[in-house]
Amino acid sequence: MTLRLGDIAPDFTAETTEGRINFHEWLGDSWGMLFSHPADFTPVCTTELGKTALLKGEFDKRGVKAIAVSVDGLESHLNWIPDIEEVNNVKMNFPIIADDEKKVAELYDMIHPNASEKATVRSVFIIGPDKKIKLTLTYPASTGRNFTELLRVIDSLQLTANHAVATPADWQDGDDTIVVPSISTEDAKVKFSKGVKEVKPYLRYTPQPNK
Ligand code: BEZ
Question: E strand or H helix at 106, and its extent?
Answer without folding.
Answer: helix 103-107
